[in-house]
Amino acid sequence: xxxxxxxxxxxxxxxxxxxxxxxxxxxxxxxxxxxxxxxxxxxxxxxxxxxxxxxxxxxxxxxxxxxxxxxxxxxxxxxxxxxxxxxxxxxxxxxxxxxxxxxxxxxxxxxxxxxxxxxxxxxxxxxxxxxxxxxxxxxxxxxxxxxxxxxxxxxxxxxxxxxxxxxxxxxxxxxxxxxxxxxxxxxxxxxxxxxxxxxxxxxxxxxxxxxxxxxxxxxxxxxxxxxxxxxxxxxxxx
Length: 238
Prior knowledge:
8 helices
């Protein structure tokens, strides 16, 4: 069952209903839940939490985190990135999506395929496909943001394409420091090396991330790898 509005808007409706009808907030929440086909708000919340592994990945993300999501082409990296952005916005948080691969129309299509409309989130979502994307550009775009913002970078290896940019190791280290200082969450989608063979290893890991140039992957304190509908999630903090 799909909701008619993001969860943060449903909560806003409940607060308004509570004020207008002098109802306790929990009764207003239950009334809104019934309008969505659920017996009460608790059941609605549990249903959302059970949807896909996205809820588990989103719950694992905390302010200051650097998460790497790796997978071969077609394994759902971008879809998961969009789902995480939607999860953040459904919680009333802002989300940014930086990409040198996708257009605004591509991302709108991703939203639609997941049963959402990009227009619904215009006040919370920023998409950027500038050719200038690099660590310095991303930090400049994120200067005004508040804590709890979720940022998806699609994808890691694109930071390494322009010779005029600093080395990828320097860029990622700079972004890590920025994320910790600003209390935001950075999610990097990453390509997997073609040498990875699913027949020998069910899921890729850090050793399979494609790296044209050296990069200390311990800079990422969370990892998530995708393959054939399976997902592995790890906390790599020391």
